[in-house]
Amino acid sequence: MQSVDSLPARTASATGAPEEVISIASSVLRYPSPDSLTPRLSRLKYAPQRQQMQWRQKILATGVFAITMAYLEGAVVVYLRQVYNIEDVVRDYVGVLDQITFVELGREAATLIMLLAFGWAVGRCLQDRIGYAMLTFGVWDITYYGWLRLFLGWPRSLLEWDVLFLLPLPWWGPVIAPMLIAFLMALAGVLLTGQTDAKQRLHLGPIQWGLGISGALLCLYTFMADAIAALPGGLETVANVRPSRFNWPLFWLGYALLCLPVWTGRWVPESVRVQPQKSENN
After folding, report:
1. If you placed Cys at 241, which of 17, 57, 230, 265 could pair as Cys (CB 3.0 to 4.6 Å)?
2. What is the pLDDT along the chain (282 residues), one digit of tens a residue?
3. Cα atoms in the Cβ-side hemisphere of radius 13 Å centred on 278
4. Rounded Cα gap, residues 241 and 230, in angstroms
């Protein structure tokens, strides 16, 4: 069977077509069709072997960074539980607006900035940077609970409640809920970074963007629903809010919408410029 690389020379001599046309035809034969809808991990094989090795090294370094960062996060929680004498999170959580609380708010913001900065430093383009930031966040969040289990023997169950975040309002939810989102982020990060090395980029249409953003907002609402309901009572009421129940149906709906952009987006070669579809009347 003739190789793809031999096609341009033979075709050029037979047809006299310009080299630019032959180059485009060759690139189309090398890469998957832009019309394919379902991303597959097997497509990573299109990256050259040396690039695959570099990508694996980056993935390993990202995992090490995220796991060690999760250790630091878990250590801070151990200290806070000692300071406030917290054994049961829901029962003993202290919602006072003291100096430690404001320092903790700053630390959470700094953590997010660190994750984004790491992705920006490691990645080579926007898709790559977003991918590494998502991968770092996902591995960090999952292993954070692993470290807490080792340090404190908590959580005893993945359905135990935890105060997940304080910005912009307190987030409450079962431990497994943020872990599911973290797993999805890590998987998406692997896909985005791997396909960048394979010279492919993810193209999302307006509907896919809308569904993904809607899913993210629904998931965020399930975590902050009690805090949002307590807003009329002022900051003190919000700070001392306790979770009532977790809206699992709404969370699963949001989670499904979050999955759609990754699994229905089009992976196209970097050299292909996706044009918006025109109506038949035009």
Report:
1. 230
2. 444 444 444 444 444 444 544 444 344 334 344 344 344 444 444 456 667 778 889 999 999 999 999 999 999 999 999 988 998 888 888 778 888 889 999 999 999 999 999 999 999 889 899 999 999 999 999 999 999 999 999 999 999 999 999 999 999 999 999 999 999 999 999 988 888 777 788 888 888 899 999 999 999 999 999 999 999 998 888 888 888 899 999 999 999 999 988 778 787 786 655 555 444 444
3. 4
4. 7
Structure tokens at 36: 């394919």
Q: How far apart are CA 66 and CA 110, in angstroms?
A: 15
Give residue for tokens 């770092």: 136
C-alpha of 278 from chain center: 32
Q: What is the dihedral of CA 128, 186, 109, 246, to 10 degrees?
A: 140
What global pTM score does this model have? 0.76
Q: How far apart are CA 253 and CA 26, in angstroms?
A: 42
Task: Kindly state the tokens that stand for 163.
Answer: 């105060």
